Amino acid sequence: MTGADTIYLVEVGSERAGEGERNTVGGWPVLDAGLAWPVCDCGERMVLFFQVDVPADIAVFGGDHLLVFQCPRHNDACFPPSSRRLPEGFWDAPPDNDMRFWQILLHRGNIRAAEADAYLRPRRLILTRAEERIDEHGRGRPGFKLGGVPAWAQDPEHYICGCGAALAQVCQVPEDFGFDKRPERPSQPYTFHDDQYGLFLGNEVYIVACPEHCNAAAAWPIAQN
Ligand SMILES: [Zn+2]
Ligand SMILES: [Zn+2]
Fold first, then answer.
1. What is the mean pLDDT of residues 205-212?
2. Distance 185 CA to ligand 2 centre (A)
3. How far apart are CA 157 and CA 166, in angstroms?
4. 3-state secondary structure the chain
5. What is the pLDDT of residue 4?
């Protein structure tokens, strides 16, 4: 990694996202053949927090469509697993018998779900190309971004996919980042903001994924604060 790596900074726009848009908070998830809208272990359909086309000039994951889901009823951190090597199929059966309350997908399909997410106000995401800047401790830029390297709130964590590949960052979501909920929906459990939902208790999240694309769901959220 060098300081010249391309990243994209992500902002939530004020405009409503319509059906068929691909860079959104909430909205209509774009899925792939054989990929269903994820359901939590509790049986609840998950909230689409955001989805985005990873721009082609992002290393490793450029051209993928990234979607980040979490259960509306289950809000927790994603704790560090006991082993750096994640088990095969960790996306469906998380290590250490943890509950599967989140799902992150990366694929190249183009099948729009028939319905929009019911929890979050659909909003457009705005992407701005930028360059990664890595400090003397090896930390990348803070903020909501695609690509680059983690800004590490704590010590770096590194994980190996069940297939043997080292997971690499595809997206970073900053601490206490809120996504506006629809007014008719209840507040999120353990919320940090009554009108917004957050990922993983508001931890800063470094989403790392399998560079081999061994499975559409081969991604892991590293949560730190
Ligand atoms: Zn749940
Ligand atoms: Zn893999």
1. 98
2. 36
3. 11
4. CCCCCEEEEEEEEEEECCCCCCCEECCCCEECCCCCCCECCCCCECEEEEEEECCCCCCCCCCCEEEEEECCCCCCCCCCCCCCECCCCCCCCCHHHCCCCEEEEEECCCEECCCCCCCECCEEEEEEEEECCCCCCCCCCCCCEECCCCCCCCCCCCCECCCCCECEEEEEECCCCCEEECCCCCCCCCCCCCCEECCHHHCEEEEEECCCCCCCCCEEEEEEC
5. 52
* pLDDT tens digit sequence for 62-100: 999 999 999 999 999 888 898 999 999 999 998 888 899
User: Could you tell me the distance, in angstroms and rounded to a whole number, from the CA of residue 123 to the centre of ligand 2?
Assistant: 31
The CA 78 to ligand 1 mean position distance, Å, reads 14
